[in-house]
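Team,

Forwarding the record for the chain on the shared tracking sheet. I've put the sequence and predicted structure together so nobody has to dig through attachments.
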Amino acid sequence: MGLLDTILGRSKPVRPDLDQLFAVPSAALTLQAGTGFTPTGLGSVCFAGVEGGTFARIQQDVGELLDADTGRGGVPVEFSRDTYGYTWLLARQPADDTAGLVNDLHAVNTLLQDGGFGPHLLCSLIGFRHADGRRLALVYLYKRGTFYPFAPAADGGERRDNQLELQVRALLGDDLRVEEDLARWFPVWGAPGL
């Protein structure tokens, strides 16, 4: 980082640390004890879709890696595209196997990163649900190496429950590296796994 970067307020990008995902099972226990939200067993990885044979092969490898996980109740993964052109991979595990789900998401991210598609990774999320029907996701920002909570409002529509998000941020501050810049807490409406 040079003098010009300092003057212009540019910061050096944070190096992605996928191992941060392994803190989620512990954070899930804290979240359940503090708010009553429990894991759903659903998680997803979002990345910019790239065309080409190499990417298609990696996508196939990801599917085979997770589909072959029948020893832990694995089911076929689902790929989908959102309205912005991003590709989502939905992974499933039993709701009580957050560690297995995190392992799957870590494996997907690692496979994409090692295949040269790291710059195309956007985020990963792990879904949670409350007994009253409210939904919550812990979103991992790949390029920042941080998490943030995303909570759609209980009444539906595209409104957020900001109070719940801030409560979860305070609750999980010791468990996860939480994104400090609230402007980076972008909504993930309709994300698979939410």
